[in-house]
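Project standup — Tuesday

K.O.: blocked on the structure for the chain from last sprint. Re-posting the sequence here as requested.
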Amino acid sequence: MVCQKQFIIDTNVLLEDPQAVFKLSNRNENSVYIPYHVLLELDKLKKNSILAHIVARVIKNLIDHPEHNKMLNSRKVSPLFSKTVNRHILDEIQASGLDQPILVRVYRF
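H.V.: unblocked you, prediction finished:
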């Protein structure tokens, strides 16, 4: 019996590797969720001249291959974008009702 994992992707993962959704879904073996606040963050970052091409590639992947990702279904979404996006993402995860979600982030040492 294959245990399906439920990955929740943070913005920095998508920026580091625009193919992360495909890799984590593992041919749809696992579920990959994108929090609403990640989309807000990407929308803000598209105006950054250094990151714009990466953000465009990430968004194109999400739109062209919706079968590899799902929007995190949450009723608790902050109406305003703020500097505390990570707290909002955790609130979304908690309100989502997912059984054993795995938050995927990039850590730099």
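K.O.: great, moving the ticket to review. The chain has one domain: 6-104. The radius of gyration is 14 Å.
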